[in-house]
Amino acid sequence: MHWRYCQGSNLLRIGVKMGSKVSLAIIGRNEIVREGLSRILVDQGFDIVATSVDADALRDMAIGRLALDLIIIDAPSKAEGHAACRSLRTDFPTARIVLLGEDFSVQTTSETMSVGADGYLAKHISCEPLARSLQLVASGEKVVPSQTVLAMIAADWSRPSGGMSSLTMPSDVRLSERERGVLRCLTRGDANKQISRELDITEATVKVHVKAIMRKLGVLNRTQAAILAVTRGLVESPVVQSVTRSAAQAARAC
């Protein structure tokens, strides 16, 4: 059973944690995105106990009253997001904190984790990977964008003693549109089943495309293919439905 508490527009909803679901609070300036994201995560099995425009509002109304497992922050800027992380880490020491962002650089990711975040996720992440990532964070794992991990690996491999220097990509690589779609999924770390579902092809077909990609790129595995894709600009940024766009659509559908 949930109940509502309103104070201006600062805190939109407070509820009571039910069962063993992960209890979650959402912080963000955009009301439509907050409401839509709430609906998406409820559908994914989370218990949304509070939504708020900023960290101060959540602290004022929820501290001492709600047991939060997770707090998601959708801040308009890196500085504001980091400030919210620091504040929430003090106010809710047992809660896991996830920040949504758009800068996947190793430096920004490192800074984000150092200010108290347990997870740093891309705002353009699709809904199911978002839910899986939040479950991982709730279970005690640290989660960062796959683009960041690939950049770190690529930087390490690019050193003289690394492994990338031994890889020579053919100069006349020609990938079909479907192969580029599969390769884009590989850069996100998607498994064959996920790729199959997203591209609406069978897993067997995915395997055929992956083998063809590896052969054309002259690499030995999926990781090397993903790293080459990122470092050599073989595919554009991953094209997935924006979580904020999905949230807005979910809110308007009610």
Summing up helix and strand content along with how strands pair, one would put the structural category as: alpha/beta
What is the H-and-E element order?
Answer: EEHEHEHEHEHHHHHHH
Q: Which strand-content bin applies to the residues?
A: 5-15%
Alpha-carbon Rg, integer: 20 Å
Protein name: Response regulator
Keywords: DNA-binding, Phosphoprotein
Domain Response regulatory: 23-138
Organism: Sandarakinorhabdus fusca
Question: Which secondary structure elements does this structure contain, and how are they paired or packed?
Answer:
Elements: E1 11-14, E2 23-28, H1 31-43, E3 47-52, H2 55-62, E4 70-74, H3 78-91, E5 96-101, H4 106-114, E6 119-122, H5 127-138, H6 146-157, H7 177-187, H8 192-199, H9 203-217, H10 222-231, H11 243-252
Parallel strand pairs: 2-3, 2-4, 4-5, 5-6
Antiparallel strand pairs: 1-3
GO molecular function, one term: DNA binding
GO biological process, one term: regulation of DNA-templated transcription
Domain HTH luxR-type: 168-233
